[in-house]
Here is the input.
Amino acid sequence: MNSTGAAANKGVLTMGRVGKTMIALSIALAISGCTRLRVGRGYIVDENLVSSVQAGVDNKESVEATLGRPSFVSQFDSNQWYYYARVTRQLAFSSPKGESQTLLRVQFDNAGNVASVSRSGLELAANIKPEGDKTDTKGSDRGFFEDLFGNIGTVGTGGAPQ
Here is the structure.
């Protein structure tokens, strides 16, 4: 074989390796899109800090210094603070599903001292499933032909003077 033939074969081998590498990278990229995502949102719960908040001992200032600002304050009673945390998991393009949830409620008395600390979890989360993309309306159910021919004779009479 001459030297030009060897160089041409070497170029073919290099292109074959590049092609295989590109295919392998494409497959790896496609598979990585199917990984399970785990996402945490809200307050990061530290069990030691949460357990240190005690009724009758702490007040609003000490709770804020220990736990930080609440996720939200009750709209109807400013003496109820809520710390909310939720972890969800999702596979590729599916809807996220709740894995864990913590809702810590700190209730204060009128003097601003902690009256109670309660905790709930995923058992209170509601799974809401919408009923498709249509909203039922009250009124007549018109068929195809009623929609097609229903306006015959009524065109132009809506706002016409009598």
Summary: The CA atoms of residues 18 and 24 lie 10 Å apart.
